[in-house]
Write a structure and sequence with these properties.
With 98 residues, the protein is an all-beta fold. It has strands at residues 3-7, 13-21, 28-32, 45-46, 51-59, 63-70, 73-75, 82-86, 91-97. Residues 8-98 form the CBM20 domain. One of its GO terms (molecular function) is hydrolase activity.
Amino acid sequence: MPIKKQYLKSKPICKVTFTVPAEEAKKVVVVGDFNNWKPKGSTLKKLKNGTFKGTFELPNENTYEFRYIIDGNYTNDTEADGYAWNDYAGTENAVVTV
């Protein structure tokens, strides 16, 4: 599940593109610190090849915890920048650093 980062020269923003290969899935959402863990407005678009993709503008010089929700099931990105333990959920969250 690769994460692509594109830093903007004109603003202190990084465009982060989340890509999730999930051909059989009906819906994939990314939730995290950057959207207050709310799935509304964070649904990734399904492409013809079965991959889900979405781009978010995140402020630079920050670290964000996140997880994917694939058809109602939480999962981490296998290629995240790192992982952080979450006492509330009792599991690890993926981390992206921009």
